[in-house]
């Protein structure tokens, strides 16, 4: 009887060791699975962010082109005049002085 009991204990101990080893193996597989799943998720997220980055860069490029075009148009419609002594920051006074200067020197009535 004692011999059978020791034999049963050894079998139980061996079975527990097998189960522990299997459990460790399953645990490692689960960790790998979760790790791979997380990697797939991060790769997908990275791909989405890269696409958004490309779209944003395209928008910025288009905005720069638009800004440059508008600045060019503004410069085309501007006249730079020199030789007019004005010592004021008042825009109304500047406009009046420009109108008088153009009228006096170019003999043209303009609205500034």
A few lines on this structure:
This protein has 112 residues and is an all-alpha fold. Helix content is 81%, strand content 0%. The chain has two helices and no strands.
Which sequence of SSEs, written as H and E, runs from N to C? HH
Q: What do the pLDDT scores average to?
A: 86
Biggest beta-sheet profile? none
Number of structurally distinct domains: 2
How many individual helices? 2
Proportion of residues in helical segments: over 70%
Question: Quaternary state, please?
Answer: single chain
Strand share of the residues? under 5%
Structural class: mainly alpha
Our measurement of the CA-to-CA distance between the termini, rounded to an integer number of angstroms, reads 119 Å
Number of strands: 0
Coiled coil: 2-73
Keywords: Coiled coil
Outline the structure in words.
By secondary structure, the chain is mainly alpha-helical. The chain has two domains: 2-78; 79-112. 81% of the residues lie in helices and 0% in strands. The chain contains two helices and no strands. It is rod-shaped and about 130 Å long. The mean pLDDT is 86. Keywords: Coiled coil. Residues 2-73 form a coiled coil.
Key words describing this protein structure:
112 residues; mainly alpha; 2 helices; coiled coil
Topology:
Blueprint: H1 2-76, H2 91-106
């Amino acid at each position: 009887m004692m011999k059978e009991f020791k034999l049963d204990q050894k079998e139980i101990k061996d079975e527990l060791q097998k189960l522990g080893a299997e459990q460790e193996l399953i645990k490692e597989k689960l960790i790998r699975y979760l790790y791979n799943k997380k990697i797939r998720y991060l790769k997908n997220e990275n791909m989405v962010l890269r696409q958004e980055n490309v779209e944003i860069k395209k928008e910025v490029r288009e905005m720069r082109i638009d800004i440059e075009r508008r600045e060019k148009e503004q410069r085309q419609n501007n006249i730079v005049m020199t030789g007019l002594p004005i010592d004021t920051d008042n825009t109304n006074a500047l406009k009046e002085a420009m109108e008088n200067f153009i009228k006096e020197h170019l003999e043209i009535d303009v609205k500034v």
